[in-house]
Design a protein that fits this description.
three-stranded antiparallel sheet; 103 residues; mainly beta; four-stranded antiparallel sheet; Rieske Iron-sulfur Protein
Amino acid sequence: MEFIDICAVDELPPGKSRAVRVAGKDIALFNVAGTVHAIANACLHQGSALADGIFSGRTVACRAHGWRYDVTTGALAVSPELGVACYPVEVADGRVAVAVNGK
């Protein structure tokens, strides 16, 4: 699995989110109480950016229609068997890295 360097962990404080593009994929980063998580940055409903959603605790609500996701797993709150892609995150030496392709 190849991790791609994204940003300094200081650029994503706890309780904040950020949209990034990694290896051609739109990713939403979320800092949940000091732990960074990465999911696909598109709501299943109509593709609205989740990084711009209302983020609280472990949940982000899509601004377009309110669909809620667990940012730690990508699962849709009302139907956990559905969800968006979730990507592995590694934080080392003050840097956040994401793996988008498993190997």
